[in-house]
Amino acid sequence: MTIVLAIMRRELASAFDQPFAYFLVPIYGLLVGGFSLWFDDVFSAGTATMRGVFFWAGFFLLILVPALTMRVFAEERRSGTLEILATLPISESELVLGKFLAAWGLVGVLVASTLGYPLMLAWLSTPATIAGSGDAPVFVRMFSECGLDWGPVFGGYLGLLLLGAALTAIGLASSASTSNPIIAFLTTLALTTFPFVLGLFLDRVPPALLPLFQYGSFGYHFDSLARGVIDARDLVFWGGLTGLGLHCAVWLLEKRRLG
Description:
Shape: globular
Radius of gyration: 21 Å
Oligomer: single chain
Structural class: mainly alpha
Helix content: over 70%
Mean pLDDT: 83
Number of strands: 0
Number of helices: 14
Number of domains: 1
Strand content: under 5%
Largest sheet: none
Low-confidence stretches: none
């Protein structure tokens, strides 16, 4: 585990030594907020809900996570540093896990950049304090008296982190399969776009096939968490998908070393 943590720290330090990470985080937050207000205007809706924000947050993860992961192994394979790492006393599993935790940590920073939106909604939906009534401070009442239901908020953020973990693992596997970062980016995008978009068209699926399509849909499992329902089946789905992606990345690296 010490080796894994060392790789994670090295990757995080390398990411924040470049302007890309500092550029990506605010852009993500602004894109999510801008599209949420443009297509799902919470102010005109009259209800405090994060459903629109969560949809756009997941949508932009679908685009930005492949950009974060496309160079992880592809660039090292092209530059030859992957061969140098193969000579060190580091297993492929440790290498993949360390890089995964670093990339997932960056995804967590992206997700955290949207935390201002539920706080803003809670503040706007909290009744004003009546003078002399002895009410608690607004910050306290934002979590008890506001119109925002915090259960779906916590579930939605858990869903974003699990979605980010699955996208990151798939991105690492794609990056480990090629020396071209652009091909890795397009491969990840191709593998993840259909399951994500599938959830938008479940109402058109024949009833006999609906359970199968539901289980393969990212949106179905994410929406369940975003409603505040923590279902073990959803956790197993995201955990299994993440594990499969990491296993494929390890297998591809081992295959290259043995080949």
